[in-house]
Amino acid sequence: MFSLQKLLGKEDKFFDLLEASAEEARTSVQALVKLTKTPDQTALLYEFIQSRRKEKQISAEIREAVYNTFVTALEREDIENLSNALYRIPKTVEKLGERIILTPQFLKDLDFSKQIGFLEQATDLVPAMVKVLRKGTNLEQLKSLNDKLQYLEGEADKAMMDHYKDLFSGKHDTLKVIVMKDLYELLEKVVDRCRDVGNIISHIVLKNS
Questions:
Q1: Ordered domains of the chain (ranges, CATH)
Q2: Its family (predicted)?
Q3: Which pLDDT value is given to residue 69?
Q4: How many CB atoms are located within 10 Å of the residue 171 CB?
Q5: CA angle, 4 as apex, 77 and 26 as ends, to 5°?
Q6: What are the start-end ranges of the H helices in 103-173?
Q7: Helix H or strand E segment including 204
Q8: Secondary structure of 83-111 in the HEC alphabet?
Q9: Residues 6+ positions from 186 with CB-CB distance below 8 Å
Q10: pLDDT tens by residue, the chain, 209 residues
Q11: Euclidean distance between CA atoms 145 and 74, whole angstroms
């Protein structure tokens, strides 16, 4: 058991910013859920842009706080790595949203619900893992959350293989294969970004336990 609050000189600002960053990651995925249901609604792109901008601002505040606050035990590099990993989630989601808006005609007969479901669960776990850092945690609690995240990433990979199997079956035209392959890869990358956050948090906890 350890307390990151002590390691950070009881500076709540770090926790506030990291938690806000994790929430923005979840918000961006919720916008993606709405977009997959109505892919022709270009106005929804604004939600992705706003989420990514907020995340970028939060990242800048974390960077400034890292260099202006004396940290005695927790390495500043760890805080920055976590902040950067969180930022990559909405950034990747925005790219995916842009692709969907550009090619809504290819999504009419496709069902992304299973993959999106994994993504929603993953971005629910990310804020939970970040919140654990404020009050301090034990390894068992963190391991349970990270194991769930790793499991979701594995299941998402399996679902992706099913998508690829259909995509390369020969029943789709070439342009559609190219477009959908790009979308599938971005979907997979978002889940991988969530996994990266879990790994970084686990590394921080293990190093300071």
A1: 4-208 (1.20.58.220)
A2: Belongs to the UPF0111 family.
A3: 67
A4: 9
A5: 75
A6: 113-135, 139-167
A7: helix 174-208
A8: HHHHHHHHHHHHHHHHHHHHCHHHCCCCC
A9: 92, 95, 96, 99
A10: 445 445 444 456 778 889 999 999 999 888 888 887 776 666 667 777 787 788 888 988 888 877 776 554 457 888 889 999 999 999 999 888 888 888 878 777 777 788 888 989 999 999 999 888 877 656 788 889 999 999 999 998 888 888 888 888 888 888 888 888 898 899 889 999 999 999 999 888 887 77
A11: 22
Whose structure tokens read 């890869």? Answer: 185
Instruction: Count CB-CB contacts under 10 A for residue 161.
Output: 10
Neighbours of 116 (CB within 10 A): 18
User: Tokens in use for 43?
Assistant: 């106005």
d(CA 59, CA 53) in angstroms, rounded, equals 10
Residue 2, SS3? Answer: strand
Q: Angle 113-135/174-208 helices, nearest 10 degrees? A: 20
Q: How far apart are CA 106 and CA 91, in angstroms?
A: 23
Provide the 8-state DSSP code for 71.
-
Q: pTM for this structure? A: 0.84
pLDDT score of 39: 63
Nearest-angstrom CA–CA distance, 97 and 175: 19
- The amino acid sitting at 70 is F
For residue 121, give every residue at least 6 positions away whose Cβ sits within 8 Å of its Cβ, in sequence order, or none: 148, 152
Phi and psi at 38, nearest 5°, equal -135, 70
Nearest to 87 by CA among 62, 63, 121, 52: 52
Q: What is the reported pLDDT for 70? A: 56
